[in-house]
Write a structure and sequence with these properties.
With about 350 residues, the protein is mostly helical. It folds into 3 domains: about 120 residues; about 45 residues, Seminal Fluid Protein  PDC-109 (Domain B); about 140 residues, no CATH class. Helix content is about 60%, strand content about 5%. It is built from 8 helices and 5 strands, in the order H-E-E-E-E-E-H-H-H-H-H-H-H. The protein has a 3-stranded antiparallel sheet with strand order 2-3-5, with no helix packed on it. The protein has a two-stranded antiparallel ribbon with strand order 1-4. Helix 1 packs antiparallel against helix 2. It is flat and about 80 Å long.
């Protein structure tokens, strides 16, 4: 086992899952535009806590990029200067990427924490890459895929910017989430490759079922993304305080998503029986079935109890963990290595 890379890849994965959860909380609380600019928040490294801090003030030092709210517009300082007794608009320019000017301290800090966690996660992934360079000759795939993860984090940061610039366009949010799963996939490969115990191989029939189950999960994830986009549009129409209307007359993707969940359960139970029969390690499939059952319960709560608090981010996080568990299991089998050990 390559203990150093295994350690760093584990923490990198945990940090990315935390960012996924934070992003889901941002969406649940409607905090996506809490920081209307990027990468800073209202032009500051540490965001404001009160609306009055965003009013123009006399005899104040403004740095280039600082933001104020003036006449329902965001005004950005074009240079560093000290204000006089009256505002000089020559020092300011209108922020044109969107027209969102609402300040909500809670939303601002929820979004800020999300970005902060993303930055910390990026540093951990960078640390993984640096540590993997020790193995560039013996195991070149480790630094190569670790570098892919670093690039992925950079792309993800850029996608986060496009989400804000688009004022939370649902398709942009979906792409942001898909990129997160790609990063997770790369990190899972690094973690699997850094392990050293060989896993007992399943039969070909069982392997086909495991692959089929993973493909079904990918389909479910795609359908779930489509349902989430529909809910986003419903929220814009009905408002964030009317959850009973968010799934009013849903599209067909919702019904397919709901029905396929039963197929996922049946297939997973079948796989479990074969795993027991072939005397393989059961922890993978046990974790997978647990995730599926929790997902179904959360789905029922969201539909029939009108989205209780916390169900949306948990639904997304568990979906990411389910995806990860299935892919990691397949990587163990395909790479012919390793038993899961944390």
């Amino acid at each position: 086992m390559n203990k150093a890379v295994f350690f760093w890849s584990t923490w990198a994965l945990l940090s990315v899952y935390l960012v996924i959860l934070a992003g889901a909380v941002v969406r649940m609380t409607g905090s996506g535009m809490g920081c209307p600019d990027w990468p800073k928040c209202f032009g500051y490294l540490i965001p404001p806590t009160e609306r009055s801090q965003l009013d123009w003030q006399p005899d104040k030092s403004y740095k280039k990029g600082n933001v104020i709210i003036l006449d329902n517009t965001l005004q950005v300082a074009i240079q560093t200067f000290e204000s006089g007794d009256t505002i000089d608009l020559k020092n300011w320019e209108v922020y044109t990427k969107h027209d969102y000017t609402t300040f909500n301290a809670t939303h601002t800090w929820v979004e800020f924490i999300n970005r902060l966690l993303g930055a910390i996660s990026g540093l951990i992934v960078l640390g993984l890459f640096v540590r993997s360079l020790w193995w560039i000759r013996k195991q070149p795939l480790l630094p190569i895929f670790s570098f892919f993860a670093v690039v992925g984090m950079g792309v993800q940061a850029w996608l986060g910017k496009t989400v804000v610039d688009s004022n939370l366009l649902p398709s942009k949010i979906s792409l942001h989430m898909i990129m997160a799963l790609l990063i997770v996939s790369v990190l899972l490969f690094v973690r699997a490759k850094s392990h050293g115990k060989q896993l007992k191989q399943p039969s070909k029939n069982l392997l086909m079922l495991i692959v089929g189950s993973f493909v079904l999960t990918l389909i479910q994830f795609g359908l779930g993304v489509d349902v989430r986009q529909f809910i986003d549009y419903q929220i814009k129409q009905a408002g964030s305080n009317a959850p009973q209307l968010w799934l009013d007359r849903p599209e067909i993707s919702f019904y397919i998503h709901r029905s396929l969940s039963l197929a996922v359960v049946v297939l997973s139970v079948w796989i479990y029986k074969l795993v027991v029969k072939e005397r393989l390690t059961q922890k993978y499939i046990q974790f997978i079935i647990g995730c599926i059952l929790v997902e179904i319960i959360l789905g029922i709560l969201m539909y029939y109890v009108d989205f209780p608090w916390g169900t949306q981010p948990l639904h997304l996080l568990i979906a990411a963990l389910l995806f990860s568990a299935q892919l990691y299991w397949l990587l163990r089998i395909k790479l012919k290595s390793y038993d899961l050990s944390i």
